[in-house]
Inverse folding.
């Protein structure tokens, strides 16, 4: 029997997440047991589990391998692939924030509240946001929402930053696990922004209150805020009003995305209609021999091939560095109710690292689950020419994934290859040739099939890694 403990569990000693033979289990002690028993009886919890917006959770009798002292053990449905807010689009983060607030309001109606307001309490199953931190719920005490500041820092402020200033929030969240501080966002908004929804109350006044607490020698955190407001006669009704006000602000935030070349790539690329049909058929045939568990579509663009991969796989990661494109894909998948394709924003040359305590609280991208197959279509020339990565290094990384590889090589005399090389010194990439690529590929993979598209400048390969 294999058991491992979740690295982040030390943050809440009353609730420890651990994994056992693929199952996600949670050990509860003390007040967490009482709060779970209350939560399990609520109507909203049953309703939200049924529609998937709260992770399905059930108690386990006589659980083996539980941490010493466990009083109750819960089993959660497993999220197919863990992602983090700094990999989400604007629409994803907004939908996650709205779900958080909606669940909070429903909890308040049944005498419960939340201990926190952390964006990491949410995950995505395909295009469906899902709340996963069941021990966050506790019996309400009539005081203010303890998670208000945390919600602002990890959900509201990032959304405001992108909606009002057109500055992407992802580097901020990746660089600070606790999000954007009130004083930071206050310094980023201008005097003209004061009239915009949410700025005066949740940014300017919040920053001033936070600064006031710090000036009194207090930590300025949620606990000091909670104590001050409780003494002022704060009530559940005021908390409901605050949460409703936050929801109105979040729902009204819009991001007027800049034009993106990649958002219309399928319409403006140099593929002929026949080549598109052939490429789709090649990908479908390359994956058709078996059902795959997890497929990565790297450089997925509008998700055309992610959808093909989903035909013969349990779950697909659709990864691209262009947020406009991924945002559009997410909204399309959300409208369909698609829970099989997870769209993420990521620069593959600068992949998400491990962050938090000892860099293990939020593991690096490649450590969260190995793929069974990888699509790498019209991507290598960007990695090799735009990012100046050596072809051997690129293929070494693909080989390290130990997965079936469906890859496309775009020759330097292809129209796109010429565009990328036009801005580079002549002779800078002497080894970027189809013959060199193929030798390097064969050293690491067994090529099972290949097809040159009619243009003669693009070749598709399906390969499996050599031992």
């Amino acid at each position: 029997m294999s058991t491992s403990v979740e690295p982040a569990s030390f943050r809440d000693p009353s609730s420890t997440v651990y994994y056992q033979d693929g199952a996600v289990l949670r050990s509860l002690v003390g007040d967490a047991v009482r709060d779970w028993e209350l939560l399990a009886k609520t109507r909203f919890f049953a309703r939200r589990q049924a529609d998937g917006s709260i992770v399905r959770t059930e108690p386990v009798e006589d659980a083996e391998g539980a941490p010493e002292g466990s009083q109750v053990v819960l089993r959660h449905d497993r999220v197919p692939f863990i992602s983090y807010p700094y990999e989400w689009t604007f629409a994803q983060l907004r939908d996650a924030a709205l779900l958080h607030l909606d669940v909070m309001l429903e909890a308040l109606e049944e005498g419960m509240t939340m201990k926190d307001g952390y964006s990491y309490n949410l995950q995505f199953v395909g295009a469906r946001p899902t709340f996963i931190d069941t021990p966050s719920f506790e019996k309400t005490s009539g005081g203010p929402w303890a998670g208000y500041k945390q919600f602002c820092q990890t959900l509201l402020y990032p959304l405001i930053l992108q909606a009002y200033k057109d500055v992407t929030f992802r580097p901020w969240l990746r660089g600070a696990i606790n999000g954007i501080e009130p004083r930071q966002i206050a310094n980023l908004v201008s005097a003209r922004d004061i009239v915009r929804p949410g700025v005066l109350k949740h940014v300017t006044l919040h920053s001033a209150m936070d600064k006031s607490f710090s000036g009194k020698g207090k930590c300025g955190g949620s606990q000091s805020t909670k104590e001050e407001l409780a003494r002022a006669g704060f009530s559940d009704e005021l908390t409901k009003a605050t949460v409703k006000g936050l929801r109105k602000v979040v729902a009204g935030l819009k991001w007027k995305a800049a034009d993106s070349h990649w958002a219309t790539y399928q319409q403006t690329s140099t593929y002929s209609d026949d080549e598109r049909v052939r490429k789709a058929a090649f990908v479908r045939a390359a994956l058709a021999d078996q059902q795959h568990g997890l497929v990565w579509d790297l450089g997925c663009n509008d998700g055309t091939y992610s959808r093909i991969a989903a035909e013969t796989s349990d779950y697909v990661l659709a990864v691209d560095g262009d947020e406009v494109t991924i945002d559009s894909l997410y909204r399309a998948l959300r409208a369909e109710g698609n829970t099989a394709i997870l769209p993420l924003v990521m620069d593959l040359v600068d992949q998400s690292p491990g962050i938090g305590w000892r860099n293990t609280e939020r593991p690096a991208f490649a450590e969260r689950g190995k793929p069974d197959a990888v699509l790498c279509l019209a991507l290598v020339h960007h990695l090799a020419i735009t990012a100046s990565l050596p072809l051997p290094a690129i293929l070494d990384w693909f080989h390290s994934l130990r997965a079936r590889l469906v890859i496309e090589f775009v020759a330097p005399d292809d129209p796109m290859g010429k565009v990328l090389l036009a801005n580079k010194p002549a002779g800078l990439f002497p080894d970027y040739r189809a013959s060199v690529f193929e030798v390097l590929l064969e050293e690491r993979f067994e090529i099972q099939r290949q097809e040159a598209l009619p243009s003669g400048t693009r070749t598709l390969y399906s390969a499996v890694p050599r031992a």
In short: The radius of gyration is 25 Å. The chain is about 40% helix and 20% strand. Confidence is low (pLDDT under 50) at residues 217-222.
